[in-house]
Amino acid sequence: MNQPKIELIRHEGSQSRLTLGLIADTLEYGYQATIWHGMVETARKHNVNSLCFLDMVLHSPYRLSALTSPLYNLVSEQAVDGLIIITSVMGVRASLEKLHDFCRRYHPLPVVSVGLALQDIPSIIVDNYQGMYDLVAHFVQEHGYHRIAFTQKQVGFPESDERYRAYVDALAAHNLPFDPDLVVPDRYYGKPSETVQWLVDERGVTFDALIAIDDYTALPLIAELNARGFSVPGDVAVAGFDDIAESQYTSPTLTTARQPLYELGQRATETVLSMLAQEQVSLYVKLPTKLMVRQSCGCLSQTASTTSMPALEQTTLSPGQAMLIAAANASETILPALSRHLLHEVTQALLTTFDVTELTTVIARELPRLGIPAYYLSLYDDEEQETEWAKLLIAYDERGRIDLTLDDRRFPSRQLLPGDVWPQTALFAMLVYPLCFRHEQLGFVLFEPGPRTHNIRACESLSGAISSAVKSALLVQEHKQMEEALEKTYAEVENQVEQRTAELQEEFAKHKQAEERLRASEERYKAIVELAPDGIVTVNLKGFVTSCNTAFVEVSGYTREEIVGRHFIQLPTLRLRDVPQFTALFASFIRGTPPEPVEFAWIHKDGSKRWAEARISTMKLGGKILSLIHI
Q1: Residues near 254 by beta carbon (within 8 Å), at least 6 away in sequence
Q2: 489, 494, 534: which is closest to 515 by C-alpha?
Q3: In the prediction, which pLDDT does 628 show?
């Protein structure tokens, strides 16, 4: 492919290099991640930086459309020079009109749509119609399937409608009758159990093949069919669409239509760069799909890919090749498994830190363990929860933690970082995530994930963990401020009680208000403890258990009534031989010396011995000091 001849000039007041932005919902899935990789590698060839703005609002119960995410308000000329939007995922639950308005709001930035063709906006799309038509044709011509079921995704969404239209047309072209009972409604999208139940139990139809709207639907459907006693492909052949990485390594391997995802990112990047160079670009570019023939359709041998042509070229892997692929898959599986264990440790360290300043220290210590070379965390700097200004709390790059002066910290949010904190020499490809708690916007974090592909998933998990940790720390901070305000109110009342009785009554009213706010703060704090993933018990200074959360009840098997009110040495989970050890730990806590985490064996209600780690920390609620034990 010819590279565009591009002469680029960076707009005044910005970094020396151009920076392109990508808007998506998540990079957890292969579809979006591959487009991002195509963009990043193409941008690097042109000495251009990359930023990816990510908010999993499509997967959140608190918002219905990705277009409503406050994070995308940060996308502006202050941070990027051009923009790519994966409209095929961002447009879910939104009309084309709203999606078009969403893209146009970034004017005058040059914008390219990926996945959907939008009016007057350069769009890079794939031939969804031909890809689905070829799948149906292969099922009929090569295997003789006549009862082919189809799963829908979102009726009215162009990508889904094109695939459905191709399914209907391909049946007609092969003189097969259309049966509406074989078309699974879009309300069952992503619900494999309900999909099979609808076909088999509700409609009672017979079918010898099933084509899913995408691979994410097809893969769990194979598992569900097997669970219901159907052999794939023996009883039912299955195919998907997209050719995500997992489709090559399942059993059976998945027949599918491959979208040129990497090329989508590549072509979109080249189009934006051409627009910045004021070159003519095509308004619509349609890329072909490839039919990937594998085992799930009934082609029993491992096969090579084919283009969208009637003749299919099949290649069987040798045993040596199969062993090499298996070994490669094993290494890819082991490394993420180790990373998940390390990520769990880092997450626990974050979630058990209840001070904002200490949290930045924990982040600086823990995140480099995951191989994340750079990150920048900022909180919105406004008591009214406005997002116009932000304060940089921590910055870390290949040199280590960056020393921030007070002048460095506060900056307009749309800049994403203060000007002199941006990397000045090396190219970067960073991910931007919101920090939020339900509807409340707390700030945002930028990650440079580095060359390890599984670090992208780690960054996604970390953004959620950091959000929870920040919210917890802010609640604790608010709680302390409430306590200080309450103590100050008490002192003022005592000093004035002998002199001005009337004033005392007024101050007493202030005290009651502060007390109500404190009570509300305590309730929120207790809610955090109750919803924590770790088992937690609270013990007073006399050693009696005052509460335990749901996680502790679930992991121990005991009810709250069997735990709360007992002295800790009488807990049924504690072995008799461990009583001296825990007594010593508790004595250390009473003396004001926080004990180190300790691993110990404990007894489940079913009598089995299990192992856990205990951490003891201090919590003050309602003026009473309690020990907080994380199991």
Answers
A1: 215, 218, 219, 222, 238, 239, 240, 247, 248, 292, 294, 295, 296
A2: 489
A3: 59
Stated length of the chain: 631
Q: Are 448 and 373 in contact (CB under 8 A)?
A: yes
pTM, 2 dp: 0.69
CB-based contacts of 481, cutoff 8 Å, min separation 6: none
Question: Strand ranges (DSSP E) for 483-623?
Answer: 536-539, 545-548, 598-603, 609-621
Side chain identity at 376, as an amino acid letter?
Answer: Y
Residue appearing with tokens 């007493």: 508
Task: Reduce the DSSP state of residue 497 to 3 states and report it.
Answer: coil
Are the C-beta atoms of 302 and 295 separated by less than 8 Å? yes
- In the DSSP assignment, the letter for residue 457 is H
User: What tokens appear for 119 in the block?
Assistant: 């009016």
Q: What is the radius of gyration, based on Cα positions, of the chain?
A: 29
- Evaluate whether 291 touches 134 at the Cβ level (below 8 Å): yes
DSSP letters for 547-574: EE-HHHHHHH---HHHHTTSBGGG-TTB
**Closest Cα to residue 423, out of 17, 12, 7, 4?**
17
Across the beta sheet with 290-292, the strand order is 256-258, 290-292, 305-307
Instruction: Name the pairing type of β-strands 429-437 and 598-603.
Output: unpaired
Strand 545-548 relative to strand 389-397, pairing: unpaired
Q: What are phi and psi of 209, to 5 degrees?
A: -155, 155
Spans in the chain with pLDDT lower than 70? 1-15, 56-67, 91-93, 300-338, 382-385, 406-408, 452-453, 496-498, 500-505, 619-631
- pLDDT at residue number 266: 96
**∠ Cα 16 17 21 (to 5°):** 135
| Residue 160 phi, psi dihedral angles, 5° rounding | -70, -40
The residue assigned the tokens 């007041």 is 13
b/e 379-411 (16+ beta carbons within 10 angstroms → b): bbbeeeeebeebbbbbbbbeeeebebeeebbeb
Q: What pLDDT score does 84 carry?
A: 97
* Long-range pairs for 175-181: beta carbons < 8 A, 24 or more residues apart: 176/140, 176/146, 176/148, 179/147, 179/205, 181/205
